[in-house]
């Protein structure tokens, strides 16, 4: 955490060069604290990260890859191959950031390396717990490989339940042929109390 003095100096920094030339701030040692500080200008995030990499401190960026959300990380990675490499190599650390992970980012990551979603599905499940379409996209990606299909079969309860509303979610995963109506029905019957307030009628879902 930056001191009050350091925070005030950071507030005066209008460029990345200002940060690296600051008298009370060490841009490398204070890397994480700089990015998370309220006085850090958001528009400096990408240039500050890339300057840190280009100055030979890739390990600092890798160790702190979770300092910003995966979505923001991916926005930076799309335009910067050096950063993309660091992000993909440290993906398990990047998804420790507590923000939700959007489906489009999962799809983009999967195109880069299919093993990343497979190997980290449990943490990703926690990060796709709010919006049903993000969880739907995760299940769709898993369903595209045999290993992923096995994960769905063995861990359907974890992948199915979330904090979202279920009707649209169920309809989409059925229409995507990611999970059959029969498997969903059996899952609900295993623990019907979870769905008592959902008033779902599976026969109404189109297939």
Structural notes for this entry:
The protein is an all-alpha fold and 207 residues long. The protein contains 16 helices and no strands. Helix 6 packs antiparallel against helix 7, helix 9 packs parallel to helix 12 and helix 12 runs parallel beside helix 15. The protein is elongated and about 65 Å long. The termini are far apart.
Please outline what is shown here.
By secondary structure, this protein is mainly α. Helices cover 61% and strands 0% of the residues.
- The termini sit apart by 54 Å
The percentage of residues in β strands lies in under 5%
The SSE order reads HHHHHHHHHHHHHHHH
Biggest sheet layout? none
Task: Jot down its keywords.
disordered C terminus, 207 residues, mainly alpha
Furnish the topology, listing elements before pairings:
Blueprint: H1 4-12, H2 16-20, H3 31-36, H4 45-54, H5 58-63, H6 70-79, H7 81-89, H8 91-94, H9 103-112, H10 114-119, H11 121-127, H12 132-142, H13 146-154, H14 156-160, H15 167-175, H16 181-190
Helix pairs in contact: 6-7, 9-12, 12-15
């Amino acid at each position: 955490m930056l001191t009050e003095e350091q925070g005030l100096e950071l507030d005066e920094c209008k460029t990345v060069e200002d940060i690296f030339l600051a008298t009370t701030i060490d841009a490398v040692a204070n890397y994480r604290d700089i990015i998370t500080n309220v006085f850090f200008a958001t528009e400096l995030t990408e240039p500050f990260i890339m300057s840190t990499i280009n100055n030979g401190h890739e390990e600092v960026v890798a160790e702190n890859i979770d300092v910003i959300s995966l979505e923001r990380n991916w926005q930076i990675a799309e335009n910067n191959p050096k950063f993309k490499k660091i992000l993909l190599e440290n993906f398990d650390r990047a998804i420790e950031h507590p923000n939700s992970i959007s489906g489009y980012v999962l799809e983009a990551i999967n195109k880069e390396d299919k093993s990343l979603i497979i190997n980290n599905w449990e943490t990703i499940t926690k990060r796709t717990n709010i919006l049903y379409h993000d969880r739907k996209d995760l299940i769709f990606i898993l369903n595209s490989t045999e290993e992923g299909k096995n994960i769905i079969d063995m861990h359907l309860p974890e992948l199915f339940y979330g904090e979202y509303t279920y009707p649209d979610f169920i309809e989409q995963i059925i229409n995507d042929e990611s999970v059959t109506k029969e498997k969903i029905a059996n899952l609900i019957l295993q623990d019907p109390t979870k769905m008592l307030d959902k008033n779902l009628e599976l026969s109404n879902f189109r297939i």
